[in-house]
Design brief:
two-stranded antiparallel ribbon, 2 helices, 2 strands, rod-shaped
């Protein structure tokens, strides 16, 4: 899960550092879902994918460990 978030972070930083400056020169700004295209592809989409992966991983693979019995005080 940490690797997935590290890859997402690298994608967000790498893509946005390039696309945001390139989009600044575009006229008109290309929109997607009412937001600038670079924010959807570079920020919103990767975070949605990473969150979906995290939820899937937690529900599918993570298991709760039973707690050990604590000694009773007399």
């Amino acid at each position: 899960m940490i690797v997935a978030w590290a890859v997402t972070g690298l994608w967000v930083l790498g893509y946005n550092s390039q696309a945001a400056y390139a989009a600044e020169a575009e006229t008109p700004i290309r929109m997607l879902f009412g937001l600038p295209r670079w924010t959807v592809i570079g920020w919103l989409l990767p975070l949605l994918v990473a969150n979906a992966f995290t939820i899937w991983f937690c529900l599918r693979f993570m298991r709760d460990e039973p707690m050990e019995d604590l000694p009773e005080d007399e």
